[in-house]
């Protein structure tokens, strides 16, 4: 609601559930479509679970029954030893989601198989998903089905799948960055191998130095370096490089040469020292051109042999999060007035960074120039998924914040969806694209789908605090505070300078639980970038504490916030807030007005 990335265009339309005939017709429509990228046995899987559900036998849709009926296993089937049903279900979910993004976007209802179950769900689609623009329609084609023998790769185990860092070897030899992870929400795909695949800053991770004698230091230094590379690869905007073992140590250490000859922008290195009781990791980020140290971090952990691998992994995650997150060290440095290079690709990347800065406060004066910048970026670099994703968010803002006027809300959301769907079609595992599409589908009233997308983004990159904040916000605004608030708080803890909207649902939760003083503190923190909803929350908290002056000032500031001031209840509902939240905040605003008027 609040200045966040997620909301609902309207209250869901009450409608009778799909009938058996409706569902059967949709099943045949999906299975007969050449655009369903499923193998024959996954098609048989889909037919089996739908027909069993329609026959009233949904309770029998367990892994064992599916394995025997669909995959030809016998009565000795053991799902722990043979994961065929689990893996094929994951692929089938991806096949269905790809179909409904593309060819099935106009279907009247949707068949889905929620994660953790083999029982299908059948939901009406309120309106057609918009098709991608003609100019890039060819890029959005669903890839061909994977071979039957393809092995699934767990995103938790492998991050972004088979993506590899670039390698420096003599002259800078860039090995193509490939993204080929098994995904849950969209069709398998790979990062563009053309110029658009390398729009972000070039970062090299030099091997961490072991300090002191002993195998522990050497092994830990190597392990942390490797884990750090793996965690940084979860942030797809970076061009990541590693030096090969054969490269001379002096050449690796010459960051100026790396910048001049190979275009490296940033260097990450560090040291590891372990003794009998403690491990200390020191890391730093340098500007490769000037050698200036931009950031340092020192991490101390107890050295417990039984938990050594976990400590190594945790330290690498912390360093990667500090450096790679949307509001992290590298992106902050790029936005700090550095001159834009002549290369159009980096200009497009800087447009994305400008959009991140805009999304801290969602101010009207920043909106138009950022929108113009992003529109130019996708014309210049039509394969740049990040720019399409941000363009989707800006088009969403045009509707939800009425930046383009109060009419045409549905059209604004359709154009937003079009851009974000294009981003996902380009890079199915791009977390920024998934977050944008999640936000837009939330505002279109498709809350379950929005949550699935948000969870997928977190699954792909659990080190991205913004992905956590998106998920936590989406859960809390739908009234699931017990799930959403811990996720939001975790995102806040992991962000160097959190945007104000991260705090809005935290403040509302405090209000609903009677903690007015703490709510006021959190609401004031949320107002650092300025927003109408922050002022509304400050007024409500001040009303609860009897602070008339603060309530009056906040209400005056809120009055300048356009649609929120005109009709607060409608504004909150537009953002997908539950009726409980809307009623409580409206009562709080009424009380704040009474307190302000009485003094």
UniProtKB/TrEMBL annotation:
Keywords: Membrane, TPR repeat, Transmembrane, Transmembrane helix. The keyword Transmembrane applies. Residues 1-20 are annotated as: Disordered. SUPFAM superfamilies: TPR-like. The chain crosses the membrane at residues 166-187. TPR repeats lie at residues 431-464. PROSITE patterns: TPR (PS50005). The keyword Acyltransferase does not apply. This is Tetratricopeptide repeat protein. It comes from Microbaculum marinum. The lineage of its organism: Bacteria, Pseudomonadati, Pseudomonadota, Alphaproteobacteria, Hyphomicrobiales.
């Amino acid at each position: 609601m609040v200045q966040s990335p997620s909301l609902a265009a309207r209250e869901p339309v009450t409608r009778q559930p799909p009938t058996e005939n409706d569902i059967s017709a949709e099943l045949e429509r999906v299975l007969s479509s050449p655009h369903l990228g499923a193998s024959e046995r996954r098609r048989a899987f889909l037919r089996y679970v739908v027909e069993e559900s329609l026959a009233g036998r949904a309770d029998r849709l367990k892994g064992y029954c599916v394995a025997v009926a669909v995959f030809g296993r016998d009565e000795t089937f053991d799902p722990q030893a043979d994961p065929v049903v689990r893996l094929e279900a994951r692929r089938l979910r991806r096949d269905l989601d790809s179909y409904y993004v593309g060819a099935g976007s106009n279907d009247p209802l949707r068949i889905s198989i929620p994660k953790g179950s083999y029982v299908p769900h059948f939901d009406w689609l309120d309106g057609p998903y918009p098709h991608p623009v003609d100019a890039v329609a060819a890029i959005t084609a669903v890839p061909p089905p994977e071979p039957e023998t393809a092995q699934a790769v767990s995103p938790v185990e492998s991050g972004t799948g088979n993506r590899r860092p670039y390698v420096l070897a003599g002259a800078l030899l860039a090995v193509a960055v490939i993204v080929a992870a098994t995904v849950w929400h969209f069709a398998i795909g790979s990062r563009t191998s053309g110029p658009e695949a390398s729009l972000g800053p070039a970062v090299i991770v030099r091997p961490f130095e072991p300090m002191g004698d002993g195998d522990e230091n050497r092994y830990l230094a190597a392990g942390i370096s490797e884990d750090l590379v793996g965690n940084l690869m979860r942030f797809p905007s970076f061009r990541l490089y590693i030096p090969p073992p054969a490269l001379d140590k002096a050449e690796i250490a010459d960051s100026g040469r790396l910048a001049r000859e190979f275009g490296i922008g940033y260097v990450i290195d560090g040291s590891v020292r372990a003794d009998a009781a403690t491990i200390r990791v020191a890391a730093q980020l340098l500007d490769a051109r000037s050698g200036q140290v931009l950031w340092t971090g020192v991490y101390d952990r107890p050295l417990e042999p039984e938990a050594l691998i976990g400590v190594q992994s945790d330290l690498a995650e912390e360093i990667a999060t500090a450096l790679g997150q949307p509001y992290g060290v590298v992106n902050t440095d790029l936005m700090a007035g550095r001159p834009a290079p002549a290369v159009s690709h980096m200009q497009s990347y800087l447009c994305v960074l400008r959009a991140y800065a805009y999304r801290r406060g969602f101010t009207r004066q920043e909106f138009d120039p950022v929108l113009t910048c992003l529109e130019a970026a996708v014309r210049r670099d039509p394969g740049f998924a990040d720019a399409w994703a941000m363009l989707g968010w800006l088009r969403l803002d045009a509707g939800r914040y009425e930046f383009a006027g109060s009419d045409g809300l549905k059209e604004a959301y359709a154009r937003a969806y079009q851009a974000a769907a294009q981003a996902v079609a380009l890079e199915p595992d791009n977390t920024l694209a998934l977050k944008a599409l999640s936000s837009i589908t939330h505002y279109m009233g498709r809350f379950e789908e929005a949550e699935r997308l948000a969870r997928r983004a977190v699954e792909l990159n659990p080190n991205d605090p913004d992905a956590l904040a998106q998920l936590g916000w989406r859960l809390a605004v739908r009234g699931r505070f017990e799930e959403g608030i811990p996720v939001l708080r975790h995102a806040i803890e992991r962000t160097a300078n959190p945007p104000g909207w991260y705090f809005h649902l935290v403040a509302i939760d405090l209000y609903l639980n009677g903690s007015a003083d703490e709510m006021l503190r959190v609401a004031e923190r949320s107002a650092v970038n300025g927003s109408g909803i922050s002022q509304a929350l400050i007024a409500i908290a001040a009303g609860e504490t009897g602070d008339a002056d603060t309530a009056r000032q906040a209400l005056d500031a809120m009055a300048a916030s356009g649609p929120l001031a005109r009709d607060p209840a409608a504004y909150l509902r537009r953002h997908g807030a539950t009726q409980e939240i809307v009623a409580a905040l409206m009562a709080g605003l009424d009380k704040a007005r009474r307190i302000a008027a009485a003094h």
